[in-house]
Amino acid sequence: MEKDTSDISRNINNTSGLQTQSGQGRRKGTKAQGNRCLVLITVSLGIVCILLLITIILQHFMITAERDKIKSYKNTAEGFNQTRFCLHSRYTEVEEKKLELESKDTPLSNELKKEASKQGNLCAADGFFTSIEMKNWSDSRQFCRDHGLDLLIIKSKVKQTTVSKFIKEKMGVTVWIGLSDIEKEGSMKWVDNSPLNNGSWMKGEPNDVAGNEDCVIMNPTSILENWNDIPCAEKGRFLCE
């Protein structure tokens, strides 16, 4: 009987020991799982902090870049306004100088008027100078250059109109102007070597009849379309400027 009681006690003790060990194992597993969760939470918070830091840094750079861009635009605008002001001031000075020069008789214009009076030549108020002698195109140009001038150049409708009215009202004859294609056939150039952009040609001109019409005259019969190419060897009146 005592032996049976002893066996029962041992069985109970063994069962209690197993239960105790099982409980300790469960507690250890729960603790380990809790530690893993804590690590994951810590890592996640660390990643979030890093992302926030990166975002803040990027925003700082973006704001700085935008501020620099605005500053650059402002400096550019200020520079543009300053340049515009300088150009406007310069333009005003040039216009004033132009008006001053136009209001004066220069020594050259006085000298030309005296020369014109002596030789029976004609000097226009608009600054055109011509001889009553008839010369070919080359001699006409040389005459102009001997007086520090050159054959007339026309590059605007305003000047075309002014010159046309002058030769029609004051001269009544055709005149040489500083335009030819002597150097290269079909390539009209002014005496300053600039190419012809727009011409005031008579209908059907230039036609280079017989391949020998290389110099240009103005005809007094009309105002805008009065240019004609003729042989350079022909003699005629001319205009210098």
TrEMBL record:
Task: Determine the domain of life of the protein's source.
Answer: Eukaryota
Q: Name one GO molecular function term.
A: carbohydrate binding
PANTHER family the UniProt entry points to: MANNOSE, PHOSPHOLIPASE, LECTIN RECEPTOR RELATED
Gene name for this UniProt entry: LOC113039843
| InterPro entries from the UniProt entry | C-type_lectin-like, C-type_lectin-like/link_sf, C-type_lectin/snaclec_domain, C-type_lectin_CS, CD209-like_CTLD, CTDL_fold
Residue ranges, annotated region (Disordered): 1-30
Q: Is Aminoacyl-tRNA synthetase one of the keywords?
A: no
Annotated membrane-spanning segments are 37-62
Protein name as annotated = CD209 antigen-like protein E
| Signal sequence interval, chain numbering | none
Residue ranges constituting the C-type lectin domain according to the UniProt record:
128-241
Name the keywords, alphabetized: Disulfide bond, Lectin, Membrane, Transmembrane, Transmembrane helix
Q: Where is the composition biased (Polar residues)?
A: 8-24
